[in-house]
Protein 1
Amino acid sequence: MTTITLKVNGQSVTKDVEPQTLLVEFIRETLRLTGTHVGCDTAQCGACTVHLNGRAVKSCNMLAVQAHGADVMTIEGLAAADGTLHPMQVAFNQCHGLQCGFCTPGMVMSAVDLVKHHGAASDESVRAGLEGNICRCTGYQNIVKAVRSAAAQG
Ligand code: FES
Ligand code: FES
């Protein structure tokens, strides 16, 4: 076991973890933050996307010990403390950017990173920016619409 300390959704967390524990397992099973999903476990679908030090990462693709000292945000930490949804969450809702919702937490976390660092100037750039996130319901057009709508609201 290794002791790690990190920030998760603004709160400091110290836990003992096995060296082989994936960050996504730590988030879901140790912290019980089950909004972060596991679709493939092999870094292909993006369902497990969280923010690590402000950038989107696939949390099935790194070990929990690698997050020692980091600032992690999961989908549970995206809304304001009073429950007000993040503009990206509102846009997904308004634009019907989800069907079953399985990919949605990862899509939203990736989309927030995309808009913050690259903007959303065209449908093509949004599609390219989100190519690491797969929607099995194939609702891509409304997802693109949602991301561009959130970006337009600044
Ligand atoms: S579960 Fe991590 S990319 Fe699919
Ligand atoms: S909404 Fe079902 S997987 Fe994307």
Protein 2
Amino acid sequence: MFYGAFILKKSDLSLVITEMNNKLECPLWHGEVNCIRRFYELPKETRPNTKDCIFFSSHEPCSLCLSAITWSGFDNFYYLFGHEDTRDSFEMPHDLKIMKEVFNCEPGSYNKKNFYWKCYSLKDMIKNCIEDENERKEIQERINKISKKYEEMFQIMKNYDSFKFSYL
Ligand SMILES: [Zn+2]
């Protein structure tokens, strides 16, 4: 309900499509997968090549979504909240747990640069790439506001039974 993704054109950063998760309809409709599904529902004539797109996810993709992004042919993705944020702030340890249990993969140890794609943490980029301190603070402040909104939504949603059971 509040995991989302969007796809932009690399050429002009225009929005191609955005979607959010819908686990109540199907447990596979994570934000990223649902966004990719909608992307492929666009008419082929107007749909850009995945190699010409930027893929952005609100949360670091889980193993399902990592595979979906890979199989779809995107050569990049960016995310705001990391797996640890998802575990700690949203009480959802499943991404890391599945990585460990199924793939024997410790937190953060999957290949963030590989044959298929490179991925980027927005928070790391802000920390490491923005030299102007004021600009960095300003962006950080915006991210803090987004984080606060997510926290508020989480507090509301966790009281709904349907949310509790939309976990694994
Ligand atoms: Zn996922």
